[in-house]
Amino acid sequence: MPDAVLDRDVVEGFRAGKDDAVRALYRHYGRLVYTVAYRILNDRQLAEDATQQAFLQAWRASSTFDPERDMAPWLATITRRVAIDLQRGESRRPSTSLEVASVDDPALVTMPPSEEAVWETWQVRAAIDELPPDEREVVRLQHLQGHTHTEIAEKLGVPLGTVKSRSSRAHQHLAHRLKHLREPIDDG
Amino acid sequence: MDSNEDGAFLEPDIVALLHDPSLWEEPSAQLEDRVAAGIAEDRRVVVPMKRRNPWPARFAAAAVGAAAAAAVVLVVTRDQEHADASVAVTGTDLAPGVSGKADITSVDSGVRINFSVPGLPRREGDEFYEGWLKNCAGTQLVPIGTYHDLEDATGWAGVDVADFPLLTVTREVVAGPKDPAQGSSGEVVVSAAMKACPAT
Description:
The complex is a heterodimer of chains A (188) and B (200).
Chain A: H1 8-15, H2 19-41, H3 44-60, H4 71-92, H5 115-130, H6 133-143, H7 149-156, H8 160-178
Chain B: H1 3-6, H2 12-18, H3 31-45, E1 47-48, H4 55-62, H5 67-80, E2 85-91, E3 99-107, E4 110-116, E5 127-134, E6 141-147, E7 153-157, E8 166-173, E9 188-193
Antiparallel strand pairs in B: 1-2, 2-3, 2-9, 3-4, 4-7, 5-6, 5-8, 8-9
């Protein structure tokens, strides 16, 4: 459950640099940090570099973090900053001319995602990771691969009704889990 | 209900995110080890401490007329001097289990390195320990002093520790002026790193 607040002992252990706490924190948040980094950098190796750097910077700054607070927004902010810095560094490297540059050349990426967009990415990934594996796979095949229910049923070798029910449960869970992203801000 | 109708549960931008490959990417299995190793290395390298700021106190001491009073103030300011950084020093296979720290302090005349590393057998007569600073490439070596032991020992360097961030202490024996043994024996007993060197 990536969004559950971490045990205070893990946070304190992380601040002390204890290996088991560092690993516990990574297992809790590592995939989410990586997802945000990948979304910004669009490169697996760079995203892993950014993930490592984000955890390192979080550790270095951990004495300033209030262990009573949720660490997720803080980590997401650090990750965004690290990834943007890395992206800028990459874009300064010698590259090919614009005429022959590929569309995913980091030099062509100019506007990084906003903090809100990064937080939305974090939340959606967290919600996906909460799904049971069979429901998660249906959602992945449906949205990432663009398969229909019938195609998914054939691919997975399960009845069409099973795919439909898994898909429905998964989407309802995602909608419930992510509804707060659309709730109006109460500024009263 | 078909595939499209499922998406009606969700806001369009969330559906768009579900189409984004970054939402489904998995980091490599080795990344956890990299993260843990990176923090362990950083933790081992430098424990930041308050920067020393001895000068105002020293100038204040100079303003004191009486020599006795000045002497007292200087003793106090020396006690209050802080190291720039403290690094963990660990024993190699030649000194297993030995550990301690080295306080690094930059002053006008150079860099002072104060060892507090108990547990090394005392070397006397023709045998001694020698401290070194080394560059990341391992191609340049600067001696910082020779010792009987490192329990409370001080080394000095006239180079920038940023350029020579690796600290080692070797076992040495007395050698003649032209003897190649004047250089490092390579028998490192303890080591420390004042900053991480890039992976080669």
